[in-house]
Amino acid sequence: MTNKVVAIDGPSASGKSTVAKRVAAGLEFLYVDSGSLYRGITWKVLKEGVSIMDADKVAVMLKTVDIFFFVAAGAVRFKIDGVELKNEIRTVEVNENVSKIAAMPAVRSQVVSWLRDMHRFGNLVMEGRDIGTAVFPGTEYKFYLDASEEERARRRFQEIHDGVEKVTFSEVNESLKRRDTIDKGRKLDPLRVAPGAVIIDTTSMNIDQVVAFILERLKPLLRK
Ligand code: CDP
Predict the structure, then answer these.
(1) Which of 5, 19, 31, 34 to mutate to test the pocket of ligand 1 (most atoms within 8 A of CB)?
(2) What is the C-alpha to C-alpha distance for residues 155 and 15, in angstroms, rounded to an integer?
(3) Is residue 224 part of a domain?
(4) Would the N or C end of the chain have less CB density within 10 A of its end CB?
(5) What is the CATH number of the domain that holds 192?
(6) Model-level pTM?
(7) Would you give per-residue pLDDT tens digits along the chain (224 residues)?
(8) Total of domains in the chain
(9) The domain containing residue 200 runs over which residues?
């Protein structure tokens, strides 16, 4: 492996996305949001009216899905059916179904293979649940971000508070807990701290502090 991969894993709303984007910019690496692929597949399954309980039909759909990867604005991005998905993959409906879809073996093996293939685009900072354990277990740069359940719910609530869909704090909290339970409990590549990962409890840290902490540990990767 010539290109480098920085793996940043952790549960929902642990601060991964903002931190990973900033770390990627600091290193001049490409940012990859692996969760957006599971969300994109979920959006497509819902759009096609495929039952989310029917793993066989989901597997068939995956084989023919029209997906295209490209690099833009410092990130590896994708289009499904020729469209780059934005708000449509952040809806309550996608949130409620994504972890069930992401637990299906056919979905995981397909997404993991797409993610590994992104390596050809360049050096990567990839955030997700299983990047250090399953996607790039061989990388020496692994971080696991966590925060208390209450703090994570508070962050997510703040993030979506002004969004189009109105949700209460307790709905956000319950939805995060449901996803955590599925993500940590699934058979295949559950959310776990990868061996050798640096664990960061971000509960009382701000974004700047977390980014600085990570970049400090990645000094050998910084451009001179
Ligand atoms: O936005 P949030 O951090 O809550 O989640 P996300 O990173 O967008 O991921 C959405 C869902 O995709 C997670 O709850 C997991 O079920 C799944 N996922 C996964 O299984 N493996 C990954 N590497 C990334 C996401």
Answers:
(1) 34
(2) 8
(3) no
(4) C
(5) 3.40.50.300
(6) 0.95
(7) 589 999 999 999 999 999 999 999 999 999 999 999 999 999 999 999 999 999 999 999 999 999 999 999 999 999 999 999 999 999 999 999 999 999 999 999 999 999 999 999 999 999 999 999 999 999 999 999 999 999 999 999 888 766 656 788 999 999 999 999 999 999 999 999 999 999 999 999 999 999 999 999 999 898 75
(8) 1
(9) 5-213
